[in-house]
Structures are given as C-alpha cells and as structure tokens.
Amino acid sequence: SDHDLVYPTCPEEMDWSQHYPAFTATIPAGVPKDDPITTTDWDDHYLHPRITQDVEVADIGCGFGGLLFALAPRMPQTLLLGLEIRTAVTEFVQEKAKALRIQQDIASREGKEQDLVPGQYQNLSCLRANTMKFLPNLFQRGQLSKIFLCFPDPHFKARKHKARIVSAALNSEYAFVLRPGGKVYTITDVEDLHVWMVDRFEGHAGFERVGEEEVEGDVCVGVMRGETEEGKKVERNGGRKFVAVFRRVADPDWV
Ligand code: SAM
C-alpha cells in the first residue's frame, strides 16, 4: 500500500535541497542583509532553501538506480531523479548516492584526481513515489527534458493492463511535465509490452516517435541497454531488448 506516501501539494512545496545539497542556493552575494525588498522577496517566495536549478531528468521505476549512477557523471550539470515505489530500494539508491559522494569528497581532499568523476554524484537522487499518482505534484509543466521508462513491470494478463505505466492518461501526464523537444525513453524485453508502449505513444497527440538513426546515436540509449540492472539480466540470459524513444511535440497553444 502507498497510503503512507507523502506528496507536496505543488512542485514549489518540494524541498529539493535535501536531495541535492551541493546545488543549494544561498542568498546572492552582495545583497545587503538589511535590504528590505530582497529579503522580503526571499522569505516570501521560498518556503525552504532553494536549489539553483530544477530537476530535469526522471527515471520512473528506477529500481536500484543503475541508469542514474551511469548517467550522472555523463551529465554532471543536470539534476537526475529516480522515482521508486519500494521503500528499501529507494533507500538503497539514496544511501549509495551518499556513500559515493563521501568517497568522492575524500578522493578530492586527498588529491586523487584520477578517482574523481564529473559531478561527483551530487546531481542524482531518489524519491519514493507511486508515479501513477501525483507526478504533476512533483514537476511543473515543461520542467523535464528526459523521462526514462526502463523495463517497466509487464503486467501480462489483460485484466492487469491498467497497472501498466504507459497508458493514454499517464502519457498525458508525461506530456505535461516534459518540455517541447523533451524525450521519453522506453526499453523492455517483452515484445508485447513494447508494441503496447509504441501504440500508446504514437496514438498520443503530444508525442512523435524518434527515428532509428537518432535513437542509435543517443548515448542515453546505450546506457539504458547496458547499465540498467534489468538490461544486464536480459544480457546474461541472452534475451532481446526493444527500445523506442518519443519526442514531446509542442502543443499549438504552447506558451
Ligand atoms: N528500471 C529498473 C531497471 O531497468 O533495472 C528497474 C526495473 S523493475 C522491473 C521495475 C521497477 O519499477 C521496480 O523497481 C518497481 O518497484 C518499480 N515500480 C513499479 N510500479 C511503480 C510505480 N507505480 N511507481 C514507482 N515505481 C514503480
């Protein structure tokens, strides 16, 4: 049950500084402490410490975070967030991120340049959430540039299809939080689910399928195939992996 899950009522209410402490904003240097306008502004607008930029990449059903830990050093200036419904798995990702940050900090202090990765894992975190609910509570319209749906649970039986994380209704939520030009990445070893996802995204006015050449040239696709826990398992078992990527097209009335 996810009755104990807590969601912000709107994205502004979310305290991201706990997730990305290295990206926490401070009151801009040079602003006099007694400047009435600026300090009022700051207090009124921010309920909690602010981060310097928004989360841009979401890994939905991130599991143990293989994709996140591989992508973070490849896009060190971008904030990545895994969303995972299982408590223990979420905590594993959070703890692993903290441990890697500490390791990087020690390497940095000891001057071991060769052990440092770009971004030093400060740009990834994980949040426990049921992504079938409240996604727009976490992200503003057009906030995300990439959403990953890697090896989602297939829910084989027809009566369970409503539990699939790709559907007309959920695709509208993905469309809402993605910016025009942003992409949804999907991968699965279940051909039937692949066909289902392609049908649902191609049938949605907010998305167009990305061509094969662009897909194959995208580093994120390689990471998705090779670095996710499920991708590795499928590899070991000699299974097939079906990939499809969809671009968010701008609504005619997008402002
Ligand atoms: N993406 C990872 C990978 O490729 O290795 C994990 C794939 S695993 C088969 C599916 C994951 O989605 C599980 O960790 C499961 O707990 C999570 N999950 C399923 N439904 C979810 C939901 N509604 N919200 C968030 N996570 C969910």
From TrEMBL:
<dbReference type="GO" id="GO:0106143">
    <property type="term" value="C:tRNA (m7G46) methyltransferase complex"/>
</dbReference>
<comment type="subunit">
    <text>Forms a complex with TRM82.</text>
</comment>
<protein>
    <recommendedName>
        <fullName>tRNA (guanine-N(7)-)-methyltransferase</fullName>
        <ecNumber>2.1.1.33</ecNumber>
    </recommendedName>
</protein>
<dbReference type="GO" id="GO:0008176">
    <property type="term" value="F:tRNA (guanine(46)-N7)-methyltransferase activity"/>
</dbReference>
<dbReference type="InterPro" id="IPR029063">
    <property type="entry name" value="SAM-dependent_MTases_sf"/>
</dbReference>
<keyword id="KW-0808">Transferase</keyword>
<dbReference type="GO" id="GO:0000049">
    <property type="term" value="F:tRNA binding"/>
</dbReference>
<comment type="pathway">
    <text>tRNA modification; N(7)-methylguanine-tRNA biosynthesis.</text>
</comment>
<feature type="binding site">
    <location>
        <begin position="130"/>
        <end position="131"/>
    </location>
    <ligand>
        <name>S-adenosyl-L-methionine</name>
    </ligand>
</feature>
<feature type="active site">
    <location>
        <position position="153"/>
    </location>
</feature>
<keyword id="KW-0819">tRNA processing</keyword>
<keyword id="KW-0694">RNA-binding</keyword>
<dbReference type="InterPro" id="IPR003358">
    <property type="entry name" value="tRNA_(Gua-N-7)_MeTrfase_Trmb"/>
</dbReference>
<feature type="binding site">
    <location>
        <position position="150"/>
    </location>
    <ligand>
        <name>S-adenosyl-L-methionine</name>
    </ligand>
</feature>
<dbReference type="Pfam" id="PF02390">
    <property type="entry name" value="Methyltransf_4"/>
</dbReference>
<comment type="similarity">
    <text>Belongs to the class I-like SAM-binding methyltransferase superfamily. TrmB family.</text>
</comment>
<comment type="function">
    <text>Catalyzes the formation of N(7)-methylguanine at position 46 (m7G46) in tRNA.</text>
</comment>
<feature type="binding site">
    <location>
        <position position="61"/>
    </location>
    <ligand>
        <name>S-adenosyl-L-methionine</name>
    </ligand>
</feature>
<dbReference type="InterPro" id="IPR025763">
    <property type="entry name" value="Trm8_euk"/>
</dbReference>
<keyword id="KW-0539">Nucleus</keyword>
<keyword id="KW-0820">tRNA-binding</keyword>
<keyword id="KW-0949">S-adenosyl-L-methionine</keyword>
<keyword id="KW-0489">Methyltransferase</keyword>
<feature type="binding site">
    <location>
        <begin position="84"/>
        <end position="85"/>
    </location>
    <ligand>
        <name>S-adenosyl-L-methionine</name>
    </ligand>
</feature>
<feature type="binding site">
    <location>
        <begin position="228"/>
        <end position="230"/>
    </location>
    <ligand>
        <name>S-adenosyl-L-methionine</name>
    </ligand>
</feature>
<dbReference type="GO" id="GO:0005634">
    <property type="term" value="C:nucleus"/>
</dbReference>
